[in-house]
């Protein structure tokens, strides 16, 4: 009997339940999607190549995020169930008045939640499985992996997790509902439908003052955040709090002001349905100040997360192409350079990099090789060239830069590395570039670090003279040369001095850097050669020296294009994935919150629209009024969020991608905008259409 | 002059096998400047009659003429326009918009009809004075008493100067003092402004303020009373007599 009543209840209040059901289905689907990512073929493929530390990082990040997502979705369920409870107060009142015990009413609600829960879990999982098939294509693209064959993926682990997690959420909701029924008074239940609208207008002057104060706070926060020189971690936190508080205050004051402002235009206010429309907007906003603030902040997070992660990936991929001109690099410290009082001197590698390759039986794998000797300046030398000497009079300009976080602040302590033009040209040719020639008394600087390079260029253009080991040298070109010796995943070479070989005569190099290109045509072949090469080098080290990292001295740098590529693609894909995923969940969540609120408002306002019709308002103008109302509620948080994002992105850009040369974010911003417009706009349209059908439902 | 002419209207509900005749061949006319009450027990068809006249419901057969327009043939936009310009409604449960002030509730009726803003203010203040609600213009419905709400609703119905004001149990939700005050205002509007009012009620006291009462029973006109030169008290007694004749189920009449 109880079960039958519950089932009938669901059937009867199907429209109220539909919104609830829909929200939870989306939640379950997203939860499943997120947790099934590890089962994706492309993801697994990528993981098998990636180094352990990246894999660990990804797993840890996914676990953390999944917890975070759980909390967000859990809150959504509680919110949706509260909405439902509110709608049905009167119904419960009737049960209670008929003599049904509170325990029994709770039981009815329990059965209803259970039914809905099981139903939504099943539908959500089905939807999730379907969507994950779609996702696999997207993920494959992200990870630049080819999916050989289509494979149906069903992640039992993710399904189990979703079932357990949502089960717990439902139990919480049931307890919560039971508690509410137990606590509430009959009179409150009966009167839930009756609206005692308490619309006291806020004092306009207070609103103006608060608005001005909030704007000032916001501007202060924006400016502080963008001033990297004086920004500390504590200040950043203060700015974030300031931003959130001012957002709340702005919504509070705007909700009070908007009506006053519109009302002062008498001509517009008393035209058509305008006075009704703006009263509705004002009352909606008054009840939504907190949720609008939350939505605005979430949207802000969404926009930043999506656009920055997309840009990050673009930048990484571009960097990678520039930074790896050769297939592999091995840098070995010259044992002869190590001073005799170093107690580990005997443990240093004796061979040059070429000798290692030969002894490891690898000389055959290369199509071309080069070795560049890198010289350091000793402490006791005269006329040491520090990095700041290369900048000349532009050193102050360099230190005065405000918009970057990554500044080397002790240029006067960094002794430059020196290489000879002969060695340099050999490497340069291997990199596929044109050799350069300089005179005996000339020099140039090799640099690719984007913050310092403009000033190196200026110094070179000025003819900055330097004094190296008794030689007076002048710049060979009127700018620095773009590039680096070491292959890294990003541009970090501040400056290497390139001089004529005669200047370095009699010196012992500190390090030898070996570059090589493989004899291989296809990608797969290269990968195979690469893996074989790495294994053989480590085998050689193990056989001749040690297999413990901390006991190995002299191998300064050993990297390959394939290794960097795996890391770069992995990092880029992970950041993009997390950014996109989080962004989409946030977007869907906050759009769903607004939509739910709007729909419940529409149900409450049916009477009002009915009255408007009786007074003689036309259907067209009623729809128009509804459109303006829904539009305002959707648009206002988005508007402020966009303003926040402009500064948020400007702040995060140097932080996340400032290391890289890429400055263009336009394409990723456009992609983000498209995503936001599509999902958020879609929700808006659906909400408007549903609201319209709700307010038309009683028309005869 | 004839304002409203109802000719042999019928309204059926239900299917062929289970037919209910809510209105069964009713004809009557209302002249301009009249104050008419329609009385009857619950289920007698009086609200259906009002709904048909107000174009909210459609008749099954017959014609309703307001001035020269046959309202039973109006459709879509023309119907909306007709309802908006020619008719004014007053409901038992006031039907005020709770988010708007009294002033805005009244002005809304004008702004929907695209009145120039300049004239709205004057018209609202004028009607408010006539109905004695100038003090409450800035208040919201929840801050007003039932009587005040109903007078605001009446102001909204009358401010557009409709040809015919239709009131459905306007005193139904009011205490007797508020009811009397409202009816006195109706009387005043009828006498001074010549507003034609047609009111549905089951309350003899309310009906006694009008100039003519039409009694309906089982969808048919049962009887009709004209006040003539009687005082309100005398008219009331005559109404009570008819009500007694009508049957016991109107015993709730005062």
Question: Which short descriptors sum up this protein?
Answer:
A: 700 residues; six-stranded mixed β-sheet; four-stranded antiparallel β-sheet; 22 helices; 65% helix; elongated; B: 254 residues; alpha/beta; Rossmann fold
Strand content of chain A: 5-15%
Would you tell me the structural class of the helices and strands of chain B?
Answer: alpha/beta
- Main beta sheet of chain A: 6 strands, mixed
* Strand order of the biggest β-sheet of chain B: 6-7-8-3-9-10
End-to-end distance of chain B? 33 Å
Please give a structural write-up.
The complex is a heterodimer of chains A (700) and B (254). Chain A has helices spanning 2-12, 14-35, 41-49, 52-87, 89-97, 102-142, 156-183, 186-190, 204-226, 233-264, 266-269, 274-287, 289-323, 353-359, 387-391, 395-400, 421-430, 453-462, 523-544, 561-615, 619-657, 666-696, and strands spanning 328-333, 366-374, 417-420, 442-447, 466-468, 471-475, 481-482, 496-499, 511-518, 555-560. By secondary structure, chain A is of the alpha/beta class. Among the domains of chain A are: 1-192, no CATH class; 324-562, no CATH class. The longest helix of chain A is centred in the last third of the chain and has 55 residues, at 561-615. Chain B is built from eight helices and ten strands. By secondary structure, chain B is of the alpha/beta class. The model of chain B has no long low-confidence stretch (mean pLDDT 85). Chain B has a domain at 2-94 and 166-246: Rossmann fold (3-Layer(aba) Sandwich). Chain B has helices at 46-53, 76-86, 102-112, 117-131, 146-158, 176-193, 204-207, 232-246, and strands at residues 2-13, 20-31, 35-39, 61-66, 69-70, 87-90, 164-168, 196-201, 212-217, 220-226. The A-B interface holds A 195-199, 266-267, 270-276, 279-280, 283, 608, 611-612, 614-619, 621, 700 and B 56-57, 77, 80, 83-85, 89, 91, 95-100, 104, 107-114, 117, 120, 140, 142, 156.
Short description:
Chain A has 700 residues and is an alpha/beta fold. Chain A contains 22 helices and ten strands. In chain A, strand 5 and strand 6 (471-475) form a beta hairpin.
